[in-house]
Amino acid sequence: MAFDALPIPKGNRVAILTNAGGPGIIIADACESAGLEVVELAPETQAALRKVLAAEASVRNPVDMIASATPETYRIALGLVLDDDRVDAAIAAFVPPLGVRQQDVAESIVTASSEHREKPILAVLMGREGLPQGRAELNEAGLPAYIFPESAARALAAMHRYRCWLARPEGEFATFDVDRAQVRHIIEKARAAGEEHLAIQDAVALLSAYGVPTAGVRHATTADEAATAAVELGLPAVLKILSQDVVHKSDVGGVAVDLRSDDEVREAFARITDSVRAQLPDARIDGVLVQPYVKGGRETIVGVTTDPSFGPVLMFGLGGIYVEALRDVTFRVHPVSDVDAQEMVREIRGHSMLQGIRGEPPSDIGVIVETIQRISQLVGENPEILELDINPFVVFEEGAMAVDARVRIDLEDHGRTP
Length: 418
Ligand code: ADP
Ligand code: MG
Known about the structure:
By secondary structure, the protein is an alpha/beta fold. The protein contains 15 helices and 16 strands. It has helices spanning 2-5, 21-33, 43-52, 71-83, 102-115, 135-140, 149-167, 180-192, 200-209, 223-233, 262-279, 321-326, 338-347, 351-355, 365-381; strands spanning 13-18, 37-38, 63-64, 89-94, 121-125, 145-146, 218-220, 237-241, 255-259, 288-292, 298-307, 311-318, 329-333, 385-395, 400-402, 405-409. The strands form three sheets. Strands 1, 2, 3, 4, 5 and 6 form a six-stranded parallel β-sheet that branches. Strands 11, 12, 13, 14, 15 and 16 form a six-stranded antiparallel β-sheet that branches. Helix 5 links the parallel strand 4 (89-94) and strand 5. Helix 2 packs parallel to helix 7, helix 3 (43-52) runs antiparallel to helix 4 (71-83) and helix 10 (223-233) crosses helix 11. The longest helix has 19 residues, at 149-167. It is elongated. Magnesium ion binds next to loops. Residues 391, 404 line the site of magnesium ion.
């Protein structure tokens, strides 16, 4: 109703008018918690109100005109607060006392509104018989009327948010210099083989081709090969089971971290392959993946899902156990601008953890923002990517590293293959 009928307020400063203290306070609280400011009225406005209101009335915001307020009082007082430069919008509340017809107050609000078309007035009418009397008059004039104070505050706050959203810069859509041919090759190869999920090495190579920092990986099929690869990559190392039948590797004991010697690597090779075989006897195991062990840093998640209506949707949040336990993630419809990406990082609850808290170093927010934009470009240029998960994307004080990646592609051809 509010969006349909009213001008969008120029700011969040609201004046509240009421003929009873209780609703005034409820509205003030609702406004404050919705991000609106119950502003102090200009001294001239307060003086002018003092002249027209009863001696017992309060001329400070919320303006309590007390039960003797007449329809005419509403019209005059609304005019005074709306003329105040400090006020962007007004909420007029009315509780029916004896002797004043709510319908007449409604008419006065309509008149005040027609005299102040540039600022919105929202009415809160508390009805005697369930429905507020006077609503019809307001609605006919195109003015919203609410039964509950909180509804009016919420509606006004939504209008204010909309104004802020309109005013915010749209940002730039970056185009990075990437190796698209490499990604086309990886995707075509997987499609030809009928592989919906990319092998992890391919997922890592795909990220790397779009400039996402990734941990080096090696493939090993025996314990000795794994030990040699680990030493070459540099100890300590991590081993991960390599199997197209395993989605969550650590759930089946398929990940061993912080391996400090070639012997530990050999032993871990046997341990994780045995564990996976015990838990998933039919899984095809293609050996292991060897990675350097990444120390420190903050685990985040950067991902993509495909929404049936909106198409690709970018996701960012705290990764690892946080994403499962707290679901502290945020989403944006593709394509994502630099401003969107910055907002995504800012709006998760764990943002303060990324800023560095209690003496912990801050995380490199710049590399996160850039990576989100690179992933946005990746899915824009390669529409077969239906899902993508970098979890964890480990972020350091400087730089970051994708240590695990999952990519699901569309095997059907919708005639859109570039
Ligand atoms: P999955 O998600 O399939 O269980 P991951 O590769 O994400 O497998 O590994 C599980 C967890 O092990 C990660 O969330 C991370 O905490 C840790 N981990 C994985 N790879 C590394 C690495 N290279 N360095 C440090 N920790 C790692
Ligand atoms: Mg993972």
